[in-house]
Amino acid sequence: MSQFRIKCPSCGEVQDIPANGPCRKCSNALVLPEDGVIQIYRMGSPLGVAVGMSIYLNEVPLGHLANAEQIRIPVTYGHYKLHMTHGMNRKCKDAEFDITPENRFGFFKAHLKMGLITNTVVIEPSTADQMPQG
Ligand SMILES: [Zn+2]
To answer: Residue 93's domain spans which residues?
Structure first.
């Protein structure tokens, strides 16, 4: 897993790239922030497997996360709110946190919590050793 999720500041295309390079859509140079990294793992589950979870970081849509998939989002220092949705489910237990020089990595696990009428995406803070390797 050596890819980073980034949204092109020029054309808005969300993509996974291994290093700084040209946007796959508009060819403008993409420069990965190097202050910190947010890593999100969607826990493998038989529930709603076919439906991607949509990721929103500070309201900015950052593509999808498939079942049992994980992504890394490079970021600058700052305050972040991580919100995710699953299909028509807009309910989410968000994660809110700061990326600082003392706390450069954010690890999160996401899973679906079944409800009687709607399901909720729950985002739990995690640690490096709880993330899947590879
Ligand atoms: Zn672009």
So the answer is: 35-130
